[in-house]
Amino acid sequence: MHQAVIAATGLHTPDQSISNAELVDAFNSYVERFNAAHAAAIEAGEVQALAPSSPEFIEKASGIKSRFVVDKAGILDPEVMRPNIPERSNDELSILAEIAVEAARQAIARWGKPASEIDAVICAASNMQRAYPAMAIEVQQALGIGGFAFDMNVACSSATFGIKTAADFIASGSARAVLMVNPEICSGHLNFRDRDSHFIFGDVATAVIVERADLAGEGAGWEILGTRLKTQFSNNIRNNFGFLNRAAPEGIGAPDKLFVQEGRKVFREVVPMVSEMILEHAGDIGVDPRSLKRMWLHQANINMNEMIGRRVLGRDPAPGENVIILDEYANTSSAGSIIAFHKTCDDFAAGETGLICSFGAGYSAGTVFVRKR
Fold first, then answer.
1. Which residues contact 334 (CB under 8 A, 6 or more apart)?
2. Does residue 227 contact residue 195 with C-beta atoms inside 8 Å?
3. Catalytic site includes residue 156
4. Average pLDDT taken over every residue of the chain
5. Confidence label for 343 from pLDDT (cuts 50, 70 and 90)
6. pTM value?
7. Does residue 208 carry a pLDDT above 70?
8. Which domains does the chain show, CATH number per domain?
9. Gap between the terminal Cα atoms of the chain
10. In this structure, are residues 174 and 120 in contact, taking their beta carbons and an 8 Å threshold?
11. For residue 253, what pLDDT is reported?
12. Exactly one of 123, 156, 345, 357 is catalytic; which is it?
């Protein structure tokens, strides 16, 4: 059995960003047009009038102030309200693979070793571009990596499930190093006409290299102290889009074929589930949760993260202990906890511990306790 370490990470951020104010302007323009077009039906009580939004509402509900996207113009056009992502030919690198490769190249550069020393690629994300060929195999080819590659989808928990899978490959001797990428173009699955959710997601890509400890170099990387996964079925977060229902009468843009959730139910059910999972896992591997220097939680909602932080630490987290990046990035699904880790892990001294944790649709949750080597 080989010990696995997180050897390097990478982050690709799109160059376009949308502020809450810009998003609200577009949404409220749509609301005005809808209400005007359906004025008679609204007055007759046959159609429910749409309510406008505000930047203050968004920030209070989520903590989000802006989000990065692959296409700003289409999202902010009240007549379109979705990203314009042109189809590419089968001979071109697909857009999901493209942003994954950008994040991966950064991780490989930070790792300081050739891509040929990677034996497997996992594309772990919640918004896959297609069923097959696997995105991971396309990334593998673009980077010149040997071995094997495959996709996996566990919604917002995909990254922690990917790290666990990579660590298991390392432990069994199946691979010396594994590249795990999380390309997320969440804006393509978001209903920008829904007041309660149109602000939630952003686009990004992250990458993690998991390597055998004895190959990582003296003191390099992060020792993976323990990984744990959990799933529990729930309909409270759902996306019904898929090849079997593409011909639905309502069309692929119908609300049912985009992201939908029962936010209050999710909050009530996920917070205790995740908090208890973290505390139980910490106890089982002998980690005092109060000793954690930092928590890198899934970036879905600031209120959820703050409550989980309090339950795990037994107090209000001090500044910097419970990392929040969703104010700038919004919810980036599987990539959120990795962004948080990538941007705020460099100040750790040897022996200090932290927690990467994700949770989301399924329900699914994953915990990865790490210690700086």
1. 124, 125, 126, 154, 155, 156, 157, 158, 159, 162, 182, 184, 206, 358, 360
2. no
3. yes
4. 94
5. very high
6. 0.94
7. yes
8. 222-372 (3.40.47.10)
9. 19
10. yes
11. 58
12. 156
